Amino acid sequence: MRATVSLLLLAVISCAVAVRYEANWPSIDSRPLPAWYDEAKLGIFIHWGVFSVPSYSPDSLAEWFWWWWQGAKLKPYSDFMARDYKPNFTYADFAPSLTAEFYDPNEWADIFQHSGAEYVVFTSKHHEGYTNWPSNYSYSWNSVAVGPHRDMVGELATAIKTRTTLRFGLYHSLFEWFHPLYLKDKAGNFSTTTFVDTKTTPEMYEIINTYKPEVLWSDGDWEAPSTYWKSVDFLAWLYNDSPVKDTIVTNDRWGIDANCHHGGFLTCMDRYQPGVLQKRKWENAMTIDGKSWGYRRNANLKDYLSIHTLIATFVETVSTGGNMLMNVGPTKEGVINPLYEERLRQFGDWMGVNSEGIKGTRPWTTQNDTLTPNVWYTMKMSAVYAVVLDYPKGPLLSLDAPMTQAGATVEMLGYPGTFTWTARPGKGIDITIPAIPADKLPCQWAWIFKFSGLAN
Fold first, then answer.
1. How far apart are CA 34 and CA 169, in angstroms?
2. Which of 31, 48, 53, 182 keeps 20 to 30 A from 125, CA to CA?
3. Domain Glycoside hydrolase family 29 N-terminal: where (predicted)?
4. Cβ 385 vs Cβ 357: under 8 Å
């Protein structure tokens, strides 16, 4: 009998190992999302490239500088170039000034570790085509050939993997604004795939095999269908045969037909925040500078989101089933400026107190409270957590979602002891808030109440 059971177990294991994903969307979409990603909740996005040299935008995306200047030909950018740069200056002339002389990947890794995040996603190549690694397919337009003369991707990958507990990921743009092979394919209504075959796909194989990222964040897909990008063929290899096939997660930006429908987790659009529970795992990719992903020298203080706004965005995201990918834009010298660092460290201080109610949680039956605004819920096993964004002004915190029963307890994460409570007529709970001195509160923003033994 034991031998029979053992054979059956081996057969089940063999079947599980033998599962292979086919190069079509139904098969690709059937792959379970690796559990680590859903447990993590918070990632750090890093946009860095040649666009970090001009680092200018009046009120929009600084990383799109080349396009605004020479694609859309917007006057503020033309005026900026005419005022500050010599005639006939080209975008490529910016590259030597991407000096990165203060780029210390170990320092970056330490800052990211403190933030409370559990993964980072670094720009390997943006739409400008410049690669932050010595790609065999970018010739002289990469970070070793011109600019820092360093493998920016490789150095950060090593620092993250050796100094932190974070997972390392890479952003990669499928298209390039002005690459002649892409423009030729585009002119032919994408009936040819020369750019994909000789540039995009080889680059993706290269970064996966070389750096073994556990997130591949695709972008630049919106002008062509996934058939042009040959997305399902690449993803089938990624999930079946790549060195990170069991742990890598991908997003949905694999073609104009794939966005918000196919792939791994859904991003749908930048700063995606649906506000209600979604059927599939999703991610809110957003920025600390509310206007730009790349660093802007001309940004004002009011452009940067406050720590309260960042935490509020985060808890709404987690409560409705998403992860948040919070972006910083380093300077051309390789500095994460003090304002970005302050936000990350503040976030880490908050997570140090409240991670129990965030990491590893799942959406509850109710996402936000309807009696008291700005309260969002999560759950973990039998515990329910209420994230209260505005500290109660009086002696009671009244909530309508929790259904009480005898033996239920209420506590505040980071604060000793339990709070007294009474059931509200019909449903809900009134929690008595003791007079806690400000210096005795466990954190300065967004307090999490933990409920044990609720009826729901």
1. 14
2. 31
3. 18-356
4. yes
State residue 257 phi and psi, 5-degree precision: -90, -15
Q: Which two tokens stand for residue 207?
A: 């970064």
- The superfamily CATH assigns to domain 375-452 is Golgi alpha-mannosidase II (2.60.40.1180)
Half-sphere exposure of residue 28: CA atoms within 13 angstroms, side-chain side: 24
d(CA 247, CA 226): 23
Question: Angle at which helices 105-114 and 152-163 pack, to 10 degrees?
Answer: 50
Please give the pLDDT value at position 18.
66
Give pLDDT tens digits for 345-357. Answer: 999 999 999 999 9
- Alpha-carbon distance of 33 to 248, in angstroms, equals 9
Domain 20-357 CATH superfamily: Glycosidases (3.20.20.80)
Q: Report pLDDT digits (tens) over 89-126.
A: 999 999 999 999 999 999 999 999 999 999 999 999 99
Token reading at 394: 């009086």
CA distances from residue 253 to 16, 175, 326 in whole angstroms, order as listed: 28, 12, 18
Whole-number pLDDT of residue 426: 84
Write the CA distances from 409 to 253, 280, 401, 455, integer angstroms: 44, 32, 15, 11
Integer Cα distance of 305 and 287 in angstroms: 8
CB hemisphere CA count around 76 (13 angstroms)? 11
Q: What is the rounded average pLDDT for all residues in the chain?
A: 95
Report the distance separating Cα 181 and Cα 199, nearest Å: 9
Are 336 and 109 in contact by the 8 Å Cβ rule? The answer is no
Residues of the chain with pLDDT under 50: 1-16
Tokens read off for 420: 């007294």
Q: Can you list the pairs that 63-69 forms with residues at least 24 positions away whose Cβ atoms lie under 8 Å? A: 63/126, 63/127, 63/292, 63/293, 63/294, 63/329, 64/127, 65/91, 65/294, 66/91, 66/127, 66/128, 66/177, 66/178, 67/127, 67/177
Q: What is the pTM of this model?
A: 0.94
Distance CA(456)–CA(296), nearest Å, equals 48
- Domain residue spans in the chain? 20-357, 375-452
